[in-house]
Design brief:
The chain is an alpha/beta fold. Helix content is 45%, strand content 21%.
């Protein structure tokens, strides 16, 4: 058995994928590891670039896009590592990060999963861990209370904005951009629920891990740069709707139909508010992005009851 299996699911992010792979081979030391890339029917040169520049990588080229969760499950079935590191193709690990995460898991046998500190391209901190979503946390977001009072322990609870993310801490869930998992834990709970095509699958996994008695940790001294939405930028409206469809699925799976109904009502409220203020912000800023977001919320109003 190897120390680590690095798993990357890719869809049309050829250049980012090459940077991601290079960051692994430039920064990982003294570990017996393998890298598995699952390509979800990319139309760019992703598969050819991996085979040409990184022949040591095991690549699975799917004939169609099977989704993020299922693709990760494909790789997990082949993985030989004591740990699995799930890495987005738009995430680039820093020096020592992967070794820090493996060492942390070795030192904390109660850890089912751990994640590192993430930064945007410009070096600003990215919120990469959160409390499990509830109707209350979604309502605070719909009413912008999380933005107005980010340091409040109630209104800032979901994204934990009351915390500087500068120490090791047990958390509810982690962003899946750079997430290390213990093999024994995922053998007990399973990896991703393939009902989630994309988004919320890591939140669902973290909840199942915690319910099975495993702990989820944020590790501040391990860092990576994450370019948010590397592949999602190509299909922004579709990704926006899929984000909320997956969140509705999460609520239905873990909280039941009545709570899911309440969540949908919160989505309607939040969408209406954003549609109403969109034109005001556009007039003030002349920002076309505001209009695009308003259109997305119109679509969410239209489709949310079908989710």
């Amino acid at each position: 058995m190897k120390d680590l299996s690095v798993v990357i699911v890719n869809w049309n992010t050829c250049d980012l994928l090459a940077q991601c792979l290079q960051s692994i081979y430039d920064t990982v030391s003294d570990l017996d590891f393998e890298t598995i890339v699952v390509d979800n029917a990319s139309s760019d040169d992703s598969v050819a670039v991996v085979r040409g520049r990184f022949p040591q990588v095991h690549i699975i080229a799917n004939p169609r896009n099977v989704g993020f969760g299922r693709a990760n499950n494909q790789a997990a079935d082949l993985a030989k590592g004591r740990y699995l590191l799930l890495l987005n193709p738009d995430a680039f690990v820093h020096e020592g990060t992967v070794n820090h995460l493996v060492n942390f898991m070795d030192a904390h046998p109660d850890a089912g999963a751990a994640g590192c500190r993430l930064f945007y391209e410009d070096g600003t901190l990215q919120r990469s861990c959160a409390a499990f979503p509830t109707v209350a946390t979604e309502l605070w977001t719909a009413l912008w209370l999380d933005k107005l009072f980010p340091t409040h322990p109630v209104f800032g609870k979901y994204q934990m904005t009351y915390w500087d993310m500068d120490d090791v801490r047990e958390v509810d869930s982690l962003l899946g951009a750079c997430l290390i998992l213990r093999r024994e834990a995922i053998e007990e709970t399973g990896l991703f629920d393939e009902q989630f095509f994309m988004y919320s699958e890591e939140v669902d996994l973290c909840m199942r891990l915690k319910r099975a008695g495993w702990k989820i940790y944020f590790v501040a001294n391990a860092e990576a740069t994450h370019i948010w939405g590397g592949s999602a930028r190509r299909i922004q409206t579709e990704s926006f709707l899929r984000l909320y469809k997956s969140r509705v699925l999460f609520f239905r799976k873990h909280y039941g139909r009545f709570t899911t109904l309440l969540y949908k009502l919160v989505l309607l409220l939040g969408s209406l508010l954003r549609i109403m203020v969109g034109p005001i912000f556009f007039i003030a800023r002349r920002d076309e992005e505001v209009i695009r977001k308003s259109r997305n919320y119109w679509l969410l109003l239209r489709f949310v009851w079908a989710f």
